[in-house]
Amino acid sequence: MERVYNFSPGPSALPLAVLEKAQKELVCYENSGMSVMEMSHRSKEYLAIITEAEKSIRELMSIPDNYKVLFLQGGASTQFAMVPLNLYVNKKADFINTGMWAKKAISEAKKFGTVNVVASSEDKTFSYIPEIDESKFSPDADFFHITFNNTIYGTRFTTLPNTGNVPLVTDLSSAILSEVIDVSKFGLIYAGAQKNIGPAGVTIVIIREDLIGHAMDITPTMLNYKTHAEDGSMYNTPPTYSIYIAKLVFDWLKEQGGVVGMQKINEEKAALVYDFLDNSSMFSGTVVKKDRSMMNIPFVTGNEELDAKFIKEAKAGGLVNLGGHRSVGGMRASIYNPMPIEGVKALVEFMKKFETENK
Ligand SMILES: *Cc1c(COP(=O)(O)O)cnc(C)c1O
Predict the structure, then answer these.
(1) Domains and CATH numbers, the chain
(2) If DSSP codes are grouped into helix, strand and coil, which group holds residue 143?
(3) Do residues 253 and 240 touch, judged by C-beta distance below 8 A?
(4) Which residue, by CA, sits nearest to atom 8 of ligand 1?
(5) Is the separation of the CB atoms in 156 and 178 below 8 Å?
(6) Strands 296-300 and 331-334, sheet pairing
(7) Are 331 and 323 in contact (CB under 8 A)?
(8) Which one-letter DSSP state was computed for residue 161?
(9) Centroid of ligand 1 to alpha carbon of 97 (angstroms)
(10) pTM for the whole structure
(11) Which atom of ligand 1 has the smallest separation from the CA of 101?
(12) Which atom of ligand 1 lies nearest, measured to the CA of 147?
Protein backbone atom coordinates (compact mmCIF):
# COMPACT_ATOMS: atom_id res chain seq x y z
CA MET A 1 0.00 0.00 0.00
CA GLU A 2 1.08 3.59 -0.71
CA ARG A 3 1.71 6.06 2.14
CA VAL A 4 -1.09 8.60 2.59
CA TYR A 5 -0.98 12.27 3.54
CA ASN A 6 -1.73 12.09 7.25
CA PHE A 7 -3.31 15.23 8.73
CA SER A 8 -3.61 13.72 12.22
CA PRO A 9 -3.39 16.11 15.20
CA GLY A 10 -1.20 13.65 17.11
CA PRO A 11 0.41 11.21 17.06
CA SER A 12 1.10 12.54 13.60
CA ALA A 13 3.20 12.04 10.51
CA LEU A 14 6.97 11.65 10.80
CA PRO A 15 9.43 12.53 8.03
CA LEU A 16 9.75 9.57 5.65
CA ALA A 17 13.54 9.96 5.64
CA VAL A 18 13.54 9.46 9.43
CA LEU A 19 11.41 6.32 9.24
CA GLU A 20 13.65 4.90 6.54
CA LYS A 21 16.81 5.61 8.53
CA ALA A 22 15.25 3.97 11.59
CA GLN A 23 14.23 1.00 9.46
CA LYS A 24 17.80 0.56 8.27
CA GLU A 25 19.12 0.70 11.82
CA LEU A 26 16.25 -1.18 13.44
CA VAL A 27 17.87 -4.57 13.86
CA CYS A 28 21.50 -3.53 14.19
CA TYR A 29 22.47 -0.04 15.32
CA GLU A 30 25.90 0.93 13.97
CA ASN A 31 28.48 -1.50 15.41
CA SER A 32 26.53 -2.44 18.52
CA GLY A 33 25.12 -5.69 17.12
CA MET A 34 21.69 -4.87 18.54
CA SER A 35 18.67 -2.62 18.15
CA VAL A 36 18.51 0.69 20.04
CA MET A 37 15.44 -0.83 21.74
CA GLU A 38 17.59 -3.59 23.21
CA MET A 39 20.39 -1.40 24.51
CA SER A 40 21.20 -0.39 28.07
CA HIS A 41 20.39 3.26 28.53
CA ARG A 42 23.80 3.53 30.19
CA SER A 43 25.72 1.98 27.30
CA LYS A 44 28.31 4.03 25.44
CA GLU A 45 26.22 3.87 22.25
CA TYR A 46 23.05 5.07 23.95
CA LEU A 47 24.76 7.85 25.88
CA ALA A 48 26.00 9.16 22.53
CA ILE A 49 22.41 9.19 21.22
CA ILE A 50 20.85 11.09 24.13
CA THR A 51 23.79 13.51 24.34
CA GLU A 52 23.50 14.24 20.64
CA ALA A 53 19.71 14.67 20.93
CA GLU A 54 20.12 17.25 23.67
CA LYS A 55 22.87 19.05 21.80
CA SER A 56 20.70 19.23 18.68
CA ILE A 57 17.61 20.63 20.35
CA ARG A 58 19.75 23.19 22.17
CA GLU A 59 21.19 24.27 18.85
CA LEU A 60 17.84 24.24 17.01
CA MET A 61 16.06 26.35 19.66
CA SER A 62 19.11 28.42 20.73
CA ILE A 63 18.50 27.34 24.32
CA PRO A 64 20.59 29.47 26.71
CA ASP A 65 23.14 27.72 28.98
CA ASN A 66 21.18 28.48 32.15
CA TYR A 67 18.35 26.19 31.02
CA LYS A 68 18.18 22.43 31.50
CA VAL A 69 16.67 20.17 28.85
CA LEU A 70 14.91 17.13 30.34
CA PHE A 71 13.64 14.04 28.55
CA LEU A 72 10.70 12.81 30.65
CA GLN A 73 7.69 10.54 30.35
CA GLY A 74 3.99 10.96 31.07
CA GLY A 75 3.15 13.34 28.22
CA ALA A 76 2.24 17.00 28.41
CA SER A 77 -0.63 15.95 30.68
CA THR A 78 1.78 14.98 33.48
CA GLN A 79 3.32 18.46 33.23
CA PHE A 80 -0.07 19.95 34.15
CA ALA A 81 0.62 18.63 37.68
CA MET A 82 4.41 18.71 37.67
CA VAL A 83 4.58 22.45 36.95
CA PRO A 84 2.59 23.53 40.03
CA LEU A 85 4.20 20.86 42.24
CA ASN A 86 7.63 22.23 41.41
CA LEU A 87 6.93 25.94 41.06
CA TYR A 88 4.38 26.61 43.81
CA VAL A 89 5.99 28.58 46.61
CA ASN A 90 3.20 31.12 47.27
CA LYS A 91 0.84 28.49 45.87
CA LYS A 92 -0.64 30.88 43.36
CA ALA A 93 -0.63 30.94 39.55
CA ASP A 94 -2.14 32.94 36.69
CA PHE A 95 -3.56 31.19 33.64
CA ILE A 96 -5.09 32.18 30.33
CA ASN A 97 -7.89 29.81 29.39
CA THR A 98 -7.69 29.17 25.65
CA GLY A 99 -9.25 25.71 25.51
CA MET A 100 -9.36 22.14 26.65
CA TRP A 101 -5.62 21.72 27.34
CA ALA A 102 -5.48 24.98 29.28
CA LYS A 103 -8.50 23.86 31.30
CA LYS A 104 -6.85 20.57 32.16
CA ALA A 105 -3.72 22.41 33.28
CA ILE A 106 -5.88 24.76 35.39
CA SER A 107 -7.69 21.90 37.08
CA GLU A 108 -4.43 20.18 38.06
CA ALA A 109 -2.92 23.41 39.42
CA LYS A 110 -6.05 23.92 41.54
CA LYS A 111 -5.28 20.69 43.38
CA PHE A 112 -2.17 22.25 44.90
CA GLY A 113 -3.01 25.94 45.28
CA THR A 114 -4.93 28.92 43.94
CA VAL A 115 -5.50 29.71 40.28
CA ASN A 116 -6.37 33.09 38.85
CA VAL A 117 -7.81 32.88 35.34
CA VAL A 118 -6.72 36.19 33.87
CA ALA A 119 -8.60 35.85 30.57
CA SER A 120 -10.65 33.30 28.67
CA SER A 121 -12.03 32.81 25.16
CA GLU A 122 -14.58 30.20 26.19
CA ASP A 123 -17.49 32.51 25.27
CA LYS A 124 -16.81 31.92 21.56
CA THR A 125 -15.68 28.26 21.61
CA PHE A 126 -12.04 29.33 21.98
CA SER A 127 -11.93 30.70 18.43
CA TYR A 128 -9.63 33.58 19.39
CA ILE A 129 -6.86 34.55 21.83
CA PRO A 130 -8.36 36.88 24.46
CA GLU A 131 -7.15 40.41 25.12
CA ILE A 132 -5.11 40.59 28.28
CA ASP A 133 -5.53 43.19 31.00
CA GLU A 134 -2.25 43.40 32.93
CA SER A 135 -4.03 44.87 35.95
CA LYS A 136 -5.54 41.43 36.50
CA PHE A 137 -2.15 39.73 36.87
CA SER A 138 -1.19 38.48 40.35
CA PRO A 139 2.12 40.14 41.27
CA ASP A 140 2.92 37.30 43.70
CA ALA A 141 2.07 34.44 41.32
CA ASP A 142 4.64 31.62 41.14
CA PHE A 143 4.11 31.31 37.40
CA PHE A 144 1.94 32.50 34.52
CA HIS A 145 0.73 29.76 32.17
CA ILE A 146 -0.31 29.93 28.52
CA THR A 147 -1.03 27.24 25.95
CA PHE A 148 0.99 28.67 23.07
CA ASN A 149 -0.74 26.79 20.25
CA ASN A 150 -4.23 25.43 20.80
CA THR A 151 -4.27 22.18 18.88
CA ILE A 152 -8.03 21.61 19.00
CA TYR A 153 -9.27 25.12 18.10
CA GLY A 154 -6.40 26.24 15.86
CA THR A 155 -5.41 29.42 17.70
CA ARG A 156 -1.94 30.65 18.55
CA PHE A 157 -0.37 33.39 20.64
CA THR A 158 1.43 35.87 18.41
CA THR A 159 2.43 38.16 21.27
CA LEU A 160 3.42 37.01 24.73
CA PRO A 161 2.03 38.50 27.94
CA ASN A 162 4.52 40.69 29.75
CA THR A 163 4.70 38.97 33.12
CA GLY A 164 7.67 40.84 34.55
CA ASN A 165 9.40 38.75 37.22
CA VAL A 166 6.71 36.07 37.22
CA PRO A 167 8.05 33.13 35.16
CA LEU A 168 6.10 32.54 31.97
CA VAL A 169 5.32 28.83 31.46
CA THR A 170 3.99 27.39 28.23
CA ASP A 171 2.59 24.18 26.86
CA LEU A 172 4.33 24.16 23.47
CA SER A 173 3.28 20.61 22.50
CA SER A 174 1.82 21.45 19.10
CA ALA A 175 4.18 24.25 18.03
CA ILE A 176 7.65 23.36 19.33
CA LEU A 177 10.30 23.58 16.57
CA SER A 178 7.76 24.93 14.06
CA GLU A 179 8.70 28.58 14.47
CA VAL A 180 11.39 30.59 16.18
CA ILE A 181 10.70 30.93 19.92
CA ASP A 182 12.79 33.09 22.23
CA VAL A 183 13.38 30.60 25.05
CA SER A 184 14.76 33.32 27.33
CA LYS A 185 11.23 34.82 27.55
CA PHE A 186 10.09 31.70 29.39
CA GLY A 187 10.80 30.14 32.75
CA LEU A 188 9.63 26.74 31.56
CA ILE A 189 8.53 25.18 28.28
CA TYR A 190 7.08 21.70 27.97
CA ALA A 191 5.94 19.60 25.04
CA GLY A 192 4.74 16.08 24.42
CA ALA A 193 6.70 14.63 21.52
CA GLN A 194 4.01 13.18 19.32
CA LYS A 195 3.30 16.33 17.29
CA ASN A 196 6.53 17.96 16.17
CA ILE A 197 9.29 15.97 17.86
CA GLY A 198 8.87 12.24 17.36
CA PRO A 199 6.83 9.27 18.54
CA ALA A 200 4.74 9.39 21.71
CA GLY A 201 6.54 8.45 24.92
CA VAL A 202 8.96 11.28 25.52
CA THR A 203 8.10 14.71 26.91
CA ILE A 204 10.58 17.54 26.62
CA VAL A 205 10.93 20.09 29.42
CA ILE A 206 13.11 23.17 29.04
CA ILE A 207 13.49 24.81 32.44
CA ARG A 208 15.47 27.78 33.74
CA GLU A 209 17.87 26.47 36.39
CA ASP A 210 16.77 28.79 39.19
CA LEU A 211 13.28 27.25 39.04
CA ILE A 212 14.63 23.82 39.97
CA GLY A 213 14.83 22.78 43.62
CA HIS A 214 11.74 24.41 45.16
CA ALA A 215 9.28 21.53 44.84
CA MET A 216 6.47 21.12 47.39
CA ASP A 217 7.20 18.57 50.14
CA ILE A 218 4.55 16.19 48.85
CA THR A 219 6.20 15.98 45.40
CA PRO A 220 6.98 12.37 44.47
CA THR A 221 10.60 11.81 43.47
CA MET A 222 9.71 11.04 39.86
CA LEU A 223 7.70 14.28 39.58
CA ASN A 224 10.52 16.48 40.85
CA TYR A 225 12.49 18.28 38.11
CA LYS A 226 15.52 18.21 40.41
CA THR A 227 15.65 14.40 40.24
CA HIS A 228 15.89 14.43 36.47
CA ALA A 229 18.08 17.52 36.18
CA GLU A 230 20.69 16.05 38.53
CA ASP A 231 20.77 12.71 36.75
CA GLY A 232 20.77 13.95 33.13
CA SER A 233 17.31 12.41 32.55
CA MET A 234 18.77 9.06 33.64
CA TYR A 235 17.36 8.70 37.16
CA ASN A 236 15.38 5.80 35.77
CA THR A 237 15.14 4.31 32.29
CA PRO A 238 14.22 7.09 29.86
CA PRO A 239 12.03 6.32 26.81
CA THR A 240 15.10 5.27 24.87
CA TYR A 241 13.64 4.52 21.46
CA SER A 242 11.46 7.66 21.34
CA ILE A 243 14.51 9.77 22.17
CA TYR A 244 16.48 8.03 19.42
CA ILE A 245 13.77 8.86 16.85
CA ALA A 246 13.60 12.44 18.17
CA LYS A 247 17.33 12.69 17.53
CA LEU A 248 16.79 11.59 13.92
CA VAL A 249 14.00 14.18 13.57
CA PHE A 250 16.36 16.88 14.88
CA ASP A 251 18.99 15.83 12.30
CA TRP A 252 16.30 16.05 9.60
CA LEU A 253 15.26 19.50 10.85
CA LYS A 254 18.80 20.75 10.50
CA GLU A 255 18.72 19.64 6.87
CA GLN A 256 15.57 21.78 6.39
CA GLY A 257 17.51 24.85 7.51
CA GLY A 258 16.76 24.48 11.22
CA VAL A 259 13.79 26.17 12.84
CA VAL A 260 14.26 29.33 10.74
CA GLY A 261 14.06 27.30 7.52
CA MET A 262 11.18 25.23 8.84
CA GLN A 263 9.22 28.33 9.86
CA LYS A 264 9.43 29.67 6.29
CA ILE A 265 8.08 26.40 4.91
CA ASN A 266 5.35 26.31 7.57
CA GLU A 267 4.29 29.89 6.76
CA GLU A 268 4.05 28.95 3.10
CA LYS A 269 2.06 25.79 3.87
CA ALA A 270 -0.41 27.57 6.18
CA ALA A 271 -0.86 30.44 3.69
CA LEU A 272 -1.86 27.98 0.96
CA VAL A 273 -4.74 26.68 3.08
CA TYR A 274 -5.84 30.01 4.57
CA ASP A 275 -5.78 31.80 1.20
CA PHE A 276 -7.99 29.09 -0.21
CA LEU A 277 -10.37 29.23 2.78
CA ASP A 278 -10.64 33.03 2.55
CA ASN A 279 -11.64 32.84 -1.11
CA SER A 280 -13.88 29.80 -0.99
CA SER A 281 -17.65 30.08 -1.17
CA MET A 282 -18.08 26.67 0.49
CA PHE A 283 -15.36 26.36 3.13
CA SER A 284 -14.46 28.79 5.88
CA GLY A 285 -11.91 28.91 8.68
CA THR A 286 -13.28 29.07 12.23
CA VAL A 287 -10.60 31.21 13.89
CA VAL A 288 -10.19 34.99 14.12
CA LYS A 289 -7.60 35.83 11.43
CA LYS A 290 -4.94 37.39 13.61
CA ASP A 291 -4.86 34.39 15.97
CA ARG A 292 -4.61 31.62 13.39
CA SER A 293 -2.35 28.64 14.07
CA MET A 294 0.22 27.55 11.50
CA MET A 295 -0.02 23.95 12.70
CA ASN A 296 -3.73 23.17 13.12
CA ILE A 297 -6.28 24.59 10.71
CA PRO A 298 -9.95 23.98 11.56
CA PHE A 299 -12.55 24.67 8.88
CA VAL A 300 -16.21 23.96 8.10
CA THR A 301 -18.68 23.99 5.24
CA GLY A 302 -21.52 25.04 7.54
CA ASN A 303 -23.35 21.79 6.76
CA GLU A 304 -22.58 18.72 8.86
CA GLU A 305 -23.58 16.24 6.17
CA LEU A 306 -21.32 17.95 3.66
CA ASP A 307 -18.48 17.92 6.23
CA ALA A 308 -18.90 14.18 6.67
CA LYS A 309 -18.95 13.65 2.90
CA PHE A 310 -15.78 15.71 2.56
CA ILE A 311 -13.93 13.74 5.22
CA LYS A 312 -14.99 10.43 3.68
CA GLU A 313 -14.05 11.37 0.12
CA ALA A 314 -10.77 12.94 1.19
CA LYS A 315 -9.85 9.69 2.92
CA ALA A 316 -10.62 7.71 -0.21
CA GLY A 317 -8.26 10.09 -2.03
CA GLY A 318 -5.38 9.44 0.37
CA LEU A 319 -5.88 12.54 2.58
CA VAL A 320 -6.60 11.09 6.01
CA ASN A 321 -7.48 12.16 9.57
CA LEU A 322 -9.19 15.41 8.53
CA GLY A 323 -12.03 15.19 11.07
CA GLY A 324 -12.26 18.01 13.62
CA HIS A 325 -11.96 17.32 17.35
CA ARG A 326 -15.08 15.64 18.74
CA SER A 327 -15.81 18.76 20.82
CA VAL A 328 -15.93 21.14 17.83
CA GLY A 329 -16.82 19.04 14.75
CA GLY A 330 -16.10 20.08 11.17
CA MET A 331 -12.64 19.52 9.76
CA ARG A 332 -9.10 20.16 10.95
CA ALA A 333 -5.92 19.86 8.93
CA SER A 334 -2.89 19.44 11.17
CA ILE A 335 0.18 20.33 9.14
CA TYR A 336 3.14 19.84 11.47
CA ASN A 337 6.77 20.07 10.31
CA PRO A 338 6.85 16.65 8.63
CA MET A 339 3.83 17.36 6.38
CA PRO A 340 5.41 18.14 3.00
CA ILE A 341 4.14 21.10 0.99
CA GLU A 342 3.00 18.58 -1.66
CA GLY A 343 0.54 17.19 0.91
CA VAL A 344 -0.87 20.66 1.55
CA LYS A 345 -1.17 21.33 -2.18
CA ALA A 346 -2.96 18.01 -2.62
CA LEU A 347 -5.41 19.01 0.12
CA VAL A 348 -6.16 22.40 -1.45
CA GLU A 349 -6.62 20.80 -4.89
CA PHE A 350 -9.00 18.31 -3.37
CA MET A 351 -11.00 21.06 -1.64
CA LYS A 352 -11.29 22.96 -4.93
CA LYS A 353 -12.54 19.87 -6.71
CA PHE A 354 -15.00 19.08 -3.92
CA GLU A 355 -16.35 22.61 -4.01
CA THR A 356 -16.96 22.45 -7.76
CA GLU A 357 -18.62 19.05 -7.57
CA ASN A 358 -20.90 19.93 -4.68
CA LYS A 359 -22.06 23.46 -5.56
C1 LIG B 1 -1.65 16.87 22.53
C2 LIG B 1 -1.59 17.95 23.52
C3 LIG B 1 -1.56 17.69 24.90
C4 LIG B 1 -1.65 16.29 25.47
O5 LIG B 1 -0.45 15.67 25.36
P6 LIG B 1 -0.17 14.23 26.00
O7 LIG B 1 1.26 14.03 25.65
O8 LIG B 1 -1.10 13.27 25.34
O9 LIG B 1 -0.41 14.33 27.46
C10 LIG B 1 -1.45 18.76 25.76
N11 LIG B 1 -1.37 20.02 25.30
C12 LIG B 1 -1.39 20.31 23.99
C13 LIG B 1 -1.31 21.72 23.54
C14 LIG B 1 -1.52 19.28 23.06
O15 LIG B 1 -1.55 19.57 21.75
Answers:
(1) 24-255 (3.40.640.10), 258-357 (3.90.1150.10)
(2) strand
(3) no
(4) 75
(5) no
(6) antiparallel
(7) yes
(8) -
(9) 15
(10) 0.98
(11) 11
(12) 13
Q: Residue 209's closest CA among 69, 82, 58?
A: 69
Q: How far is the CA of 118 from the centre of ligand 1 (A)?
A: 22
Distance of CA 71 to the CA centre of its chain: 15
Answer whether 94's CB lies under 8 Å from 166's CB: yes
User: What pLDDT, in 10s, does the model give residues 85-106?
Assistant: 999 999 999 999 999 999 999 9
**Residues 18-28: tens digit of each pLDDT:** 999 999 999 99
**Atom 14, ligand 1: residue with shortest CA distance:** 173
Residue nearest to atom 2 of ligand 1 (CA): 173
List residues bridging with 207 in a β-sheet. Answer: 68, 188
DSSP-derived secondary structure for 235-301: SS---HHHHHHHHHHHHHHHHTTHHHHHHHHHHHHHHHHHHHHHH-SS-EE-S-GGGB-SSEEEEE-
Q: Please choose, from the candidates 243, 244, 241, the residue with its C-alpha nearest in 3D space to the C-alpha of residue 37.
A: 241
Taking the C-alpha atoms of residue 33 and residue 12, their distance in angstroms, rounded to an integer, is 30
Alpha helices in 90-232 (DSSP H): 100-109, 225-230
Distance CA 341, CA 345 (A): 6
From CA 321, how far away is CA 319, in angstroms rounded?
A: 7
pLDDT of residue 119: 98
